[in-house]
């Protein structure tokens, strides 16, 4: 763990007494105290560089004019930032810059907004005595990126873009080429930005002081007239942004510097992909039809609500409330998910409510709940900055959670150890100390195998921890004793040496932290996998302290919140069981109705009952597109097409809408108020920045109006704030949270049991939510999907940085230029044996379906394993997958699918 | 190296990248985009970083030249220009290099793949000694060796040594006669037979090239040889012989003294770093010793880029164990575990000999796992500024040689962010000599602020080049008088390309010391004194200097990156018909900005030779520059 002790120091800057911290530079102290020292190469987000020499100062007792950005501040120091001498030198340097810079930047009275112009104004530079002959004037502007351009003639070679790429994004896509006067910025091997390793995070554009790198989107739209702080909706990291709006249109998304989540950083999606909100495909009016063979007709909201109300009342009277179900959305707000659950439970009278987290992290909730008593991430993203070792299991944050991916890479650069457990040789795996390239579906064996080594070598936590904080140790030890390195290696395919090395690293680091993704959960034994991983943390005492814990990286923006809100068939808010009479009582009391006591169905279960007697007859889908995203989706489509009433509430006419009777136009996150909860339990606001197109409405409003039409007022007040207050009153862990607390940039992390509570960055520090940590000892079982002679390959699916899950949004942006299809990644050896070359078209087959894909041959997958993304419905990879799922949670086995491959 | 990098960082792929790229460029030419991507993958970095490194280093940007001619100051003064014309007229494509360390015998003409392995012979009979120093080889030592092999008695030995530095006598053959080393030189290959015969006949003293006992020569015996004490005496690669001459005795003394004792000895000795800055060595070592870190580095700066200096090369070729010993003592004192020698690519012979010495030190367990310290040689790739310690560290990390801002100083955060001592080769050598001889002897020499000895290298347009180790003090004019000559010398540049230029007659008033040069607005640098003769063209030289600085500027800081280019433009037209109104004050202003605000000494001192030359020969520039504020 990095420990820094700083002490307060006091300096005299320009005669003014100011305070700072030891370890700060003079520049930092000056900046913190509002004293402006001209500078071009310095940036608060970057390490001191000392190249522009503009920030020179005079220091008492020091010869010459040191640069303030590189001069350590010392107690009692006396600094002059302004003097005739300094002005003279700064003016001279600025004059040199302008001998190399388009002169109109200086002469044009219209402020071009660049920092060089500002500095020139500061030093009152009017004319340039040198010949103004910039040598990069002839260099063509690089316009290869749809989002930004690079004009070398404006570049002042301050290297801020390079440093941003190296030290913030950590992609290292930029460099200088040439030397001295001929130095110039290049991307990749002197390629275009588009062709280089650049991932368009935009950090370099943010840093550029002179608009050599320019945000084209904002540039063509003009400066925003309003900025609205909101939360990004593209993954569970929960980055904070200021949405720049001009004339009612989104112009730019600027990552917030004051948020602890993203610290001013962004990924390509956060910064550039929200443009879909203005796409012409947006749904703008409700659409209805009597049967799915008919064309849709535009209807009014009134008519739409009437159709639903009439239909549902009829179905309830004929078949009972349990023939109706709802799937709410981990993409929508907490308030929507709460109200969706309330609509089903209080208005319809069924517990048939579920959300799309079912198919991603439901196994995390089950697994962590079993071991710790809470299904949420134990620690915070900031812990990555301080941990000694990161165990990355079944996730590829560089693609799925790019801002966290960069945070991990930054930590790796500072010397953090790293183990990556993944069947795929991901970028992160390549940079790890140990890559455990396991056979898909063998997580339980892997983590119990590591525990075996730890127990064998006596590296587990001490007996005080075991006695005071845990239970069920002996059965666990017994179970792990079976999983010798030899057996573990034979099951997982991981070499014994790697197992030994990983076990020792994890157990002996003073703080080891685990992050995991769907590679842990989307298995036939996903819940057991999470139990095995959580038990490993428990065994080594790596939980309950900073820099430790089990931390699921949530795929969608509100996976945490949608589950926290009780949009699940068996629990109310914050996992309060519907079986529990006391819980039922308190909810019934506040809701003013008797709530049903029988658990509802998960949505895969709901679909299975369609067409059965007493089966599901109507489904209300809010912001999910299961006809595209669910496995065996030909079967899903069949079930959907057999419903009496399918209501699809979405922002676009998605795949599922094709089977709907009613399509309701919804608002995007930029058009809505409410809250999301990110993967570290941080409840953050989204705020309405623009109006919805046409008649589209916010999700929570549609649900509330529908309830109204059914005769129930489910709103405690007119705004989502009152919705939150109601649910918080019903939920001990949220009681201390209200909207006014969420105004601060850092918002707050639950549990927050009361108003005075500061929030919780590390859970389980004194005791576990369930009291004692429980060593779960599931027995390893082979995955349901196994290779056969006919289907000899195991296919793993996952995400790509340029798209967001179903791709409904990102495919409608310029991001499609970066990746326009899903590809099948396969090993050289397999490709050779099937005479498949890179770029060949291949058939992927399973008992469900056969589809065509383009093969990408490489070494990212082991022999016998395949990988593809799932963003393009036209490819239809999910139609190939089976509905095999986790036994506890029905989370589908997306990560292990037996298929065959042949060249077309 | 990259296997032992302390942290993961694609931005710091390690020095291996430079080696791989050099080999790539040498064997396959400059890599294309696809190949750059492959190399990036192979070396754990990205294509941008690989391309950036290629774009930075001269050695990685090959031309189709068939021969290279040195255009460093000394070789320029000795007529590079006419050699280049001559070669070009004969159809050669001439590439230019800046100093091969052959300054006394310039202009140096270098052809690739010319490496010659010095011939030697064992034997118990007569002992012949012949230098294998690169300069000696350039004077023709190898043809002497060739012809000797057939002529010396069967039981005679031909021992290859470093050079005594008496270049006016090179190639010089020494023979051990009656326990005395008698010398013959300068020899031609066809004179060797007569030398051998004269010895057999005991008539050697009447041989026309007989110079008597070498160590009794006035120009030799009047020196105070500390760092250079063993050079030229024995085979530097024969570790046992070198030990008999005291090699590693300083190291055992250091071990007995302990870290505190060594630091105290260094402090008492008054040793100041010889890279140019003259920073007290004991401060630097103590700063590194005080750091708490499990990884520390000792780096020898062997990127001897100042044209006119070559003593580092002579040490590495003539007494490499002295460098190793100095680094070992430093490691012992600071707790460092890894050593690196950053050796410029222009010194292939030094690399071969030093590597061989490192190997034998490993075999003797002086280096390696058992001693807890080992040394690796890392090759430069053609960049003058990589002689600056922080640029050197960047280069060692496999990066572009861009200067780092200080603080943090390398002793706190150096190579890969770990505490690192970077010292010049000569500094390590003197440190080892001090530990061998004791600080008292060393500090008894020199002046108050410049203790001990200085290695003076007098080169360029002089008929009597020299490389001598003498105490600080006295005037520079005296040194010339005692060891060389100012006859026909018009100007002398002291301290490398960035040093000030003086008229010959001024040298009698300047003390040979750090402070002496400081008060004359000059720098001592690495002890190089380049003489320019009658053909000295002040304007042409000023332009050449600035062109060199422009070409070699790393480009990190603005005053140097843009300033050197603007200065080149201004100086080129100064005093010509192209001069523009205001140029004279603009140069003065630019001088002030570059000198006051540059990040490192390259930009900070670039105006030194310019200013001092224009001051002394204003008529060659259309008159004096206008002082600041002279024109508004």
Structural class given helices, strands, pairing of chain B? alpha/beta
Rg on CA atoms of chain A, Å: 29 Å
- Summarize model confidence as the mean pLDDT of chain A: 94
Described by the principal axes of the CA atoms, the overall outline of chain A is: globular
Number of strands of chain B: 17
What does this structure look like?
Chain A has a seven-stranded mixed beta sheet with strand order 13-12-24-23-22-14-15, covered by helices on one side. Chain A has a six-stranded mixed beta barrel with strand order 29-33-30-32-31-34. Chain A has a five-stranded parallel beta sheet with strand order 18-17-16-20-21. Helix content of chain A is 29%, strand content 17%. Chain A is an alpha/beta fold. Chain A is built from 29 helices and 34 strands. Chain A is globular and about 90 Å long. Chain B has 632 residues and is α/β, with parallel strands linked by helices. Chain B has 26 helices and 17 strands. At the A-B interface, helix 2 and strand 6 of A face helix 2, helix 3, helix 21, helix 22 and helix 23 of B.
Short précis:
Chain A has 904 residues and is an alpha/beta fold. Helix content of chain A is 29%, strand content 17%.
Search tags:
heterodimer, A: alpha/beta, 29 helices, B: 632 residues, alpha/beta, 5-stranded mixed sheet, 26 helices, 13% strand
Topology, pairings included?
The complex is a heterodimer of chains A (904) and B (632).
Chain A: E1 8-13, E2 16-21, H1 26-32, E3 58-59, E4 78-80, H2 84-98, H3 104-107, H4 115-123, E5 148-150, H5 160-169, E6 174-177, E7 184-187, H6 203-207, E8 213-215, H7 216-221, E9 226-231, E10 240-246, E11 249-255, H8 268-272, E12 287-288, E13 297-298, H9 301-319, E14 324-328, H10 334-348, E15 353-355, H11 362-372, E16 389-393, H12 397-400, H13 402-413, E17 417-421, H14 427-430, E18 434-436, H15 443-456, H16 463-469, E19 470-471, H17 473-482, H18 485-492, H19 496-508, E20 512-516, H20 518-521, H21 526-539, E21 550-552, H22 559-564, H23 581-591, H24 603-609, E22 618-622, H25 626-629, H26 633-641, E23 645-650, E24 662-665, E25 674-677, E26 682-686, H27 699-709, H28 720-729, E27 748-749, E28 773-774, E29 793-798, E30 823-827, H29 828-833, E31 841-845, E32 850-858, E33 865-869, E34 897-903
Helix pairs in contact in A: 2-4, 10-27, 10-28, 11-21, 15-17, 15-18, 15-19, 15-21
Chain B: H1 16-28, H2 33-43, H3 47-56, E1 67-70, H4 73-77, H5 80-89, E2 94-97, E3 109-110, E4 127-131, H6 134-139, H7 141-151, E5 157-161, E6 173-177, E7 180-184, H8 192-200, E8 210-213, H9 218-221, H10 239-244, H11 249-269, H12 281-290, E9 297-302, H13 311-318, H14 320-334, E10 338-343, H15 348-363, E11 374-379, H16 389-396, E12 420-424, H17 425-437, H18 439-443, E13 453-460, E14 466-471, H19 476-483, E15 491-494, E16 501-503, H20 514-519, E17 528-532, H21 538-552, H22 558-561, H23 563-573, H24 583-597, H25 601-605, H26 607-616
Parallel strand pairs in B: 1-2, 4-5, 9-10, 9-12, 10-11, 13-17
Antiparallel strand pairs in B: 1-3, 4-6, 6-7, 7-8, 13-14, 15-16, 15-17
């Amino acid at each position: 763990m990095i420990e820094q002790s700083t002490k307060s120091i006091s300096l005299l800057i320009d005669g003014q007494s100011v305070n700072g911290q030891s370890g700060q530079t003079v520049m930092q102290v000056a900046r913190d105290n509002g004293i402006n020292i001209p500078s071009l190469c310095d940036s608060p987000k970057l390490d001191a560089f000392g190249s522009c020499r503009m920030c020179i100062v005079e220091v008492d007792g020091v010869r010459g004019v040191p640069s303030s950005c590189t001069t350590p501040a010392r107690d009692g120091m006396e600094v002059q930032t302004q003097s005739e001498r300094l002005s003279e030198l700064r003016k001279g340097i600025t004059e040199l810059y302008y001998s190399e810079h388009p002169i109109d930047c200086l002469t044009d009275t219209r402020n071009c907004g660049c920092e060089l112009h500002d500095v020139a104004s500061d030093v009152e530079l009017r004319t340039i005595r040198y010949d103004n002959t910039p040598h990069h004037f002839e260099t063509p502007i690089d316009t290869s990126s749809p989002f930004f351009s690079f004009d070398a003639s404006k570049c002042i070679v301050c290297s801020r873009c390079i440093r941003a790429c190296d030290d913030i994004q950590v992609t290292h896509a930029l460099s200088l080429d040439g030397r001295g006067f001929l130095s110039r910025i290049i991307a990749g091997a002197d390629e275009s930005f588009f062709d280089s390793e650049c991932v368009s995070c935009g950090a370099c554009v943010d840093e550029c002081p002179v608009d050599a790198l320019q945000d084209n989107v904002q540039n063509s739209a003009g400066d925003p007239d309003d900025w609205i702080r909101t939360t990004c909706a593209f993954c569970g990291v929960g980055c904070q942004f200021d949405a720049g709006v001009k004339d009612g249109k989104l112009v730019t998304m600027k990552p917030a510097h004051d948020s602890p989540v993203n610290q001013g950083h962004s990924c390509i999606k956060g910064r550039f992909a929200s443009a879909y909100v203005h796409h012409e495909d947006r749904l703008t009016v409700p659409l209805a039809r009597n049967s799915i063979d008919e064309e849709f007709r535009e209807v009014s909201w009134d008519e739409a609500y009437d159709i639903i109300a009439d239909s549902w009342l009829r179905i309830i009277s004929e078949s009972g409330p349990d023939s109706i179900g709802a799937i709410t959305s981990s993409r929508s707000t907490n308030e929507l998910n709460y109200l969706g659950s309330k609509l089903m439970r209080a208005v319809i009278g069924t517990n048939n409510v579920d959300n799309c987290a079912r198919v991603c992290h439901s196994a995390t909730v089950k697994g962590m709940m079993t071991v710790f008593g809470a299904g949420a991430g134990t620690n915070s993203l900031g812990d990555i900055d301080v941990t000694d070792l990161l165990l990355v299991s079944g996730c590829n944050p560089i693609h799925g959670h790019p801002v966290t991916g960069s945070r991990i890479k930054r930590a790796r650069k500072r010397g953090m150890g790293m183990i990556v457990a993944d069947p795929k040789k991901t970028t992160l795996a390549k940079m790890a100390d140990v890559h455990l390239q396991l056979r898909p579906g063998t997580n339980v064996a892997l983590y119990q195998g590591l525990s075996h080594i730890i127990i064998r070598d006596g590296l587990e936590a001490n007996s005080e921890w075991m006695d005071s904080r845990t239970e069920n140790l002996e059965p666990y030890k017994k179970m792990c004793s079976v999983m010798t390195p030899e057996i573990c290696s034979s099951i997982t395919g991981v070499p014994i040496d790697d197992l030994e090395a990983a076990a020792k690293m994890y157990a002996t680091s003073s703080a080891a932290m685990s992050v995991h993704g769907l590679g842990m959960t989307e298995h036939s034994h996903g819940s057991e996998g999470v139990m095995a991983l959580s038990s490993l943390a428990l065994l080594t005492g790596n939980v309950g302290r900073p820099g430790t814990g089990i931390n699921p990286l949530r795929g969608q923006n509100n996976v945490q919140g949608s589950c926290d809100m009780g949009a699940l068939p068996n629990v109310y808010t914050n996992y309060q069981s519907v079986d529990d009479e006391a819980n039922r009582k308190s909810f019934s009391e506040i809701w003013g109705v008797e709530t049903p006591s029988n658990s509802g169905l998960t949505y895969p279960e709901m679909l299975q009952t369609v067409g059965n007697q007493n089966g599901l007859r109507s489904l209300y889908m809010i912001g999910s597109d299961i006809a595209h995203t669910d496995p065996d989706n030909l079967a899903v489509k069949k079930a959907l097409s057999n419903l009496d009433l399918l209501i699809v509430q979405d922002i676009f006419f998605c795949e599922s809408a094709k089977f709907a009777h009613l399509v309701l136009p919804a608002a995007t996150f930029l058009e809505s108020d409410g809250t999301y909860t990110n993967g570290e339990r941080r409840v953050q606001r989204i705020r309405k920045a623009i109006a919805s197109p046409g008649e589209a409405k916010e999700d929570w409003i549609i649900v509330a109006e529908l309830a109204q039409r059914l005769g129930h007022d489910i709103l405690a007040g007119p705004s989502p704030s009152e919705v939150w207050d109601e649910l918080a009153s019903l939920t001990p862990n949220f009681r201390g949270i209200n909207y006014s607390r969420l105004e601060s940039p850092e918002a707050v992390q639950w549990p927050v049991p009361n108003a005075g509570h500061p929030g919780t960055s590390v859970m389980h520090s004194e005791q576990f939510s369930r009291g004692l940590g429980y060593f779960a000892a599931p027995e390893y079982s082979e995955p349901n999907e196994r290779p056969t002679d006919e289907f000899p390959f195991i296919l793993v699916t996952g995400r790509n940085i340029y798209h967001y899950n179903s791709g409904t949004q990102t495919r409608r942006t310029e991001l499609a230029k970066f990746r326009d299809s899903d590809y099948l990644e396969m090993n050289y050896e397999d490709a050779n044996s099937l005479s498949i070359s890179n770029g060949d078209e291949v058939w992927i087959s399973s008992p469900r379906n056969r589809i065509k894909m383009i093969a990408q041959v490489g070494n990212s997958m082991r022999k016998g394993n395949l990988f593809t993304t799932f963003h393009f419905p036209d490819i239809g990879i999910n139609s190939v997958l089976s509905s095999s799922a986790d036994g506890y949670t029905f989370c589908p086995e997306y990560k292990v699918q037996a298929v065959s491959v042949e060249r077309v | 190296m990259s296997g032992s990098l302390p942290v993961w960082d694609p931005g710091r792929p390690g020095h291996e990248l430079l080696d791989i790229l050099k080999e790539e460029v040498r064997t396959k030419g400059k890599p294309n985009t696809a190949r750059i991507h492959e190399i990036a993958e192979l070396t754990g970095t990205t294509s941008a970083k690989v391309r950036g490194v290629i774009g930075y280093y001269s050695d990685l940007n090959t031309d189709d030249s068939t021969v290279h001619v040195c255009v460093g100051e000394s070789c320029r003064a000795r007529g590079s220009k006419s050699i280049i014309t001559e070669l070009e007229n004969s159809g050669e494509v001439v590439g230019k290099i800046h100093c091969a360390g052959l300054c006394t015998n310039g202009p140096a003409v270098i052809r690739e793949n010319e490496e010659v392995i010095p011939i030697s012979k064992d034997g118990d009979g007569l002992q012949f000694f012949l230098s294998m120093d690169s300069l000696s080889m350039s004077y023709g030592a190898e043809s002497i060796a060739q012809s000797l092999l057939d002529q010396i008695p069967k039981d005679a030995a031909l021992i290859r040594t470093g050079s005594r530095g008496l270049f006016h006598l090179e190639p010089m053959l020494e023979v051990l006669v009656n326990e005395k080393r008698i010398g013959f030189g300068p020899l031609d290959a066809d004179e060797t037979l007569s030398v051998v015969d004269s010895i057999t006949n005991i008539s050697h003293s009447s041989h026309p090239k007989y110079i008597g006992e070498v160590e009794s020569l006035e120009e030799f015996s009047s020196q105070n040889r500390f760092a250079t004490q063993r050079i030229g005496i024995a085979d530097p690669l024969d570790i046992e012989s070198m030990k008999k001459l005291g090699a590693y005795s300083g190291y055992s003394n250091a071990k007995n003294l302990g870290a505190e004792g060594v630091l105290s000895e260094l402090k008492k000795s008054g040793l100041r770093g010889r890279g140019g800055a003259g920073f007290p060595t004991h401060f630097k070592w103590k700063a590194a010793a005080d750091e708490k870190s499990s990884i520390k580095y000792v780096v020898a700066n062997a990127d001897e880029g100042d044209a006119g200096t070559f003593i580092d090369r002579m040490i590495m070729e003539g007494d490499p164990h002295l460098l190793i010993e100095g680094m070992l003592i430093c490691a012992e004192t600071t707790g460092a575990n890894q050593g690196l020698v950053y050796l410029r690519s222009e010194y292939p012979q030094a690399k071969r000999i030093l590597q061989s010495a490192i190997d034998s030190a490993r075999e003797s367990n002086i280096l390696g796992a058992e001693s807890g310290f080992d040394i690796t040689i890392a090759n430069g790739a053609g960049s003058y500024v990589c002689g600056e310690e922080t640029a050197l560290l960047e280069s060692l990390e496999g990066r572009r040689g861009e200067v780092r801002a200080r603080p943090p100083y390398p002793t706190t955060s150096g190579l890969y962010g770990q505490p690192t001592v970077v010292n010049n080769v000569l500094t390590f050598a003197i440190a080892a000599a001090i530990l061998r001889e004791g600080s008292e002897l060393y500090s008894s020499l020199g002046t108050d602020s410049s203790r001990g000895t200085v290695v003076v290298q007098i080169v360029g347009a002089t008929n009597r080049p020299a490389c001598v180790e003498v105490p600080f003090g006295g005037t520079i004019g005296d040194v010339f008088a005692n060891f060389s000559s100012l006859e026909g010398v018009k100007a002398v540049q002291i301290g490398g390309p960035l040093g000030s230029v003086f008229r010959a007659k001024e040298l009698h008033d300047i003390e040979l010391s750090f402070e002496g040069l400081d008060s004359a607005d000059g720098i001592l640098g690495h002890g190089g004194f380049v003489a320019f003769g009658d053909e000295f063209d002040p304007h042409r030289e000023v332009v050449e200097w600035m062109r060199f600085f422009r070409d070699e500027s790393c480009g990190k800081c603005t005053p140097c990156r843009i300033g050197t280019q603007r200065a080149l433009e201004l100086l080129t037209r100064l005093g010509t018909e192209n001069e523009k109104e205001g140029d004279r004050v603009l140069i003065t202003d630019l001088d002030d900005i570059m000198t006051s605000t540059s990040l490192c000494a390259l930009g900070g001192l670039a105006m030194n030779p310019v200013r001092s030359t224009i001051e002394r020969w204003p008529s060659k520039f259309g008159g004096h520059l206008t002082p600041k504020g002279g024109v508004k």
